[in-house]
Amino acid sequence: MQSPPVLKTALNYGALSGLVSFIVFLILYWMNFNPLGPASWLGAWVPVLFMVLATRHYRNYENGGFLMYWNGFRISFLTACSAAFVFGALSWFFVSYIDGEILDRFKQESLEAMELTEGMMKSIVGESAFD
Length: 131
Hints:
131 residues, single chain
């Protein structure tokens, strides 16, 4: 039995996932969080949700209620890849043309976190371990 192609469903749900992920990115930005920093984990549920929705749609509406493991894996993987491409393109556009300082802010926050961690590690293992 030949199963229907998965690419159309994966690309549609992947594009929606990338768009919703970018909307979460913008919401975090407008709430004065750095969407490239730790707050980005607040949007980690979006790709997982759309992978599940894409797989369910494929199983229920395109494959007659039947889903083989390989098809489920493939549609989830392609959905995640297309979502990453769309989100990456939108994020690149945002950083390149709207607010390029967001990367500098992310670098500064990362350096501050590393310095704090270094201080904590020095207090735990001692100053001699860092020479």
